[in-house]
């Protein structure tokens, strides 16, 4: 996605969608998120499965690229970041089995893309 110029600020569009274990109807996340350059953006995710579904995966797809996993999270262990992604840039929270969030720090235009949880 190209950035949209508005005044002196660059605005970033994060298109988000959810994907559950079946048709996605049991997963809810922030739908569309706008942010200015250097802002912080937080995406929240929750599911209605039972508490045995403790894992949450966060993915992103940038324009012209394949989908990449950012991080694997659980409420009960250390988060596992994929190569090229860090806790400093993409801090994630997972305080219980049903909810979690992903933050993108200091947004540059290059972070504009599709982000989702599973």
TrEMBL record:
<dbReference type="Pfam" id="PF07686">
    <property type="entry name" value="V-set"/>
</dbReference>
<dbReference type="InterPro" id="IPR007110">
    <property type="entry name" value="Ig-like_dom"/>
</dbReference>
<dbReference type="GO" id="GO:0002376">
    <property type="term" value="P:immune system process"/>
</dbReference>
<dbReference type="InterPro" id="IPR013106">
    <property type="entry name" value="Ig_V-set"/>
</dbReference>
<dbReference type="InterPro" id="IPR013783">
    <property type="entry name" value="Ig-like_fold"/>
</dbReference>
<dbReference type="GO" id="GO:0005886">
    <property type="term" value="C:plasma membrane"/>
</dbReference>
<protein>
    <recommendedName>
        <fullName>Ig-like domain-containing protein</fullName>
    </recommendedName>
</protein>
<dbReference type="InterPro" id="IPR036179">
    <property type="entry name" value="Ig-like_dom_sf"/>
</dbReference>
<feature type="signal peptide">
    <location>
        <begin position="1"/>
        <end position="24"/>
    </location>
</feature>
<keyword id="KW-0732">Signal</keyword>
<dbReference type="InterPro" id="IPR050413">
    <property type="entry name" value="TCR_beta_variable"/>
</dbReference>
<feature type="domain" description="Ig-like">
    <location>
        <begin position="39"/>
        <end position="118"/>
    </location>
</feature>
<dbReference type="GO" id="GO:0007166">
    <property type="term" value="P:cell surface receptor signaling pathway"/>
</dbReference>
<keyword id="KW-0391">Immunity</keyword>
